[in-house]
Amino acid sequence: MKNKYTSTAIAMYINYFVHGMGAIILAQNMTYLTEQLHTDKAGVSYIISALGIGRLIVLYISGVLSDKFGRKPFIYLGMITYIIFFAGILLSPNVTVAFIFALLAGVANSFLDAGTYPALMECYPKATGTASVMIKAFISAGQFTLPIVIGFLVSNGLYFGYSFIFCIIIFVLNGIFLIKRVFPVANEVKATESVEEIKSEDEMKHKPNFWIEGISLIIIGFTATATFLVVQVWLPQYGKEVAGMIDTASLKLISYYSLGSISAVVVTSVLVKNLIKPVRFVVIYPLISLVTLMVLWMFPTPTTCMIGAFSIGFSAAGGVLQLALAAMSDLFPTSKGKITGMVYTASSIASFAVPAITGIISKTSMSNIILFDAGVTALGIVLGIIVNIRYNIMMKSN
């Protein structure tokens, strides 16, 4: 039987297609923004850091309020706030004003997360991993599409701001479409429902312990984000300076990265549906990322950079964060908005702390940035192992 929330889910996924563009739109338009804002690339980078700060400010509380007031209001808040960001950047006369609007983009992201992730889990209670990781597919699709849009504008000598207006138009149309869409009742899962939302309480040896697997999954929210963020920001520069790639070739590494991410979503969505539990991927994928990072560090060639970009896109950016959240919701099913806020707060901390840390490291060596990323990823693997051990203890053997 067809799921009555399918059209609702489609509308939510479209929002993340636009979010994928919004996440990179400042960096993609850096040249034009330096002119408009009378600043340099460092100034635009400073503005970009505001996205992580804005996201952190309201994410936890918005998750808690989402549990109380429902998902739809927060999705609309996210869409409206994002529209203000896109329009505000185009009207900003200087770095200070643009920074404020960039903060709003982070706030908008938090609102969308707090409403969308719990809503999707409630729309598809028996496929929370697949529903969550599909968000990453739409984010990646947006990040793949925006450079094409900007390339079209540049090649035709058109106003760079049309890329921002393009995002606004999609949000407006999707907002109209969303008006009559129905949502499931928030937190319909009862406290007696357990891991994977299909096991009964008497099938569990022990109840989940928030201070062990809960905290571990929250920290994985940080390590998973850090792993792909370092590559997203620094791999083109690493390819150019360390691997000896030319400018155009090094910039294309992000295209390989996006393709890897999209591929992972397709593969993972199939695997988590019937074959492998989401919790297993919080070890498997970071392990692939760690091996890839070490190969990149030891053998910095154009070929390894291209393969590495795809591999990191697949294993780190392809949904580890979403799968960690799905595992968290399986273990603690009664407060999905709250746990979304917790996991994504850790992710937000990574989104502004990691660029600052790696910026300092870059003054020593680009290779040291890759080593730093490997260290963070290794921490994520250890935490993932802890979570899986606890998961196995909680569930009886077949």
Give the secondary structure arrangement, pairings included.
Layout: H1 6-28, H2 30-36, H3 41-69, H4 72-91, H5 95-123, H6 128-155, H7 162-178, H8 210-241, H9 247-251, H10 253-274, H11 278-298, H12 302-315, H13 320-331, H14 336-361, H15 366-394
Helix pairs in contact: 1-4, 1-5, 1-6, 1-7, 3-5, 3-14, 4-5, 4-7, 5-6, 5-14, 6-10, 6-13, 8-12, 8-13, 8-14, 8-15, 10-12, 11-12, 11-13, 11-15, 13-14
Summarize the structure.
This protein is mainly α. Helices cover 79% and strands 0% of the residues.
Structure description:
- Helix 3 runs antiparallel to helix 14 (about 335-360) and helix 4 runs antiparallel to helix 7.
- About 80% of the residues lie in helices and about 0% in strands.
- Residues about 190-205 have low confidence and may be disordered.
- The chain is built from 15 helices and no strands.
- The chain has about 400 residues and is an all-alpha fold.
- The chain has two domains: about 1-190, MFS general substrate transporter like domains (Growth Hormone, Chain: A, Up-down Bundle), CATH 1.20.1250.20; about 190-398, MFS general substrate transporter like domains (Growth Hormone, Chain: A, Up-down Bundle), CATH 1.20.1250.
